[in-house]
Amino acid sequence: MSTSETTITLFSHELLWYCVKTRPKQEGIATLLLRSELGLEVFCPKIRFKRARSTGIAWVNEAMFPGYIFARFVYPELYRRIAATSGVTKTLSFGNKPAVLEESIITDLRRHVADGETVEITCEIKEGEEIRVIEGPFLGVRALVTRILPARERVAILLNMLGQEREIEVSTTAVLPDMRHPLTAAE
Description:
- It is a single chain.
- By secondary structure, this protein is an alpha+beta fold.
- The protein has 2 domains: 3-120, Alpha-Beta Plaits (2-Layer Sandwich); 130-177, SH3 type barrels (Roll), CATH 2.30.30.30.
- The protein is built from 4 helices and 15 strands.
- It has helices at 3-10, 27-38, 75-83, 103-111; strands at 16-22, 41-43, 46-53, 56-63, 68-73, 88-91, 93-94, 97-98, 100-101, 118-120, 130-133, 142-149, 154-161, 164-171, 175-177.
- The radius of gyration is 23 Å and the shape is elongated.
- The relative contact order is 0.17.
């Protein structure tokens, strides 16, 4: 890329989308402050999913892109104020050029989110899949689902106890699919 192309982007007075780097777990506060204090259009896509906790299943909201948000602004006018905003570290750049996003990327991302910013990921339990028990006497045990019993809101799972396989029924709220992260590709 030539120096003149870099200069055009750095000093462009166009309203463009940029990738903004945030402090860890500060995407929400950075989004709120950039919107309220600077009046910017900010896009912070999130995922919502169930996670096992010691108290049972809890819905969790996390940034889809941890440590990054997208903001639309005129770079030379606001990049310093954005970097000085609480929760923000800098506007992402490669070399001396800020990372500009095409409008179509933001449009495509927004098309996949329900309320403008959140994608809900459901983890339906299926026969033959491995689950983890998250409550009750078998807490922490991994097992195989053998049957789904929807009318009773239960699942039958196959446990290996004392060298023998046993099928037991547990509540659907007592198990979660055994997966690492909701955006992990299915194998």
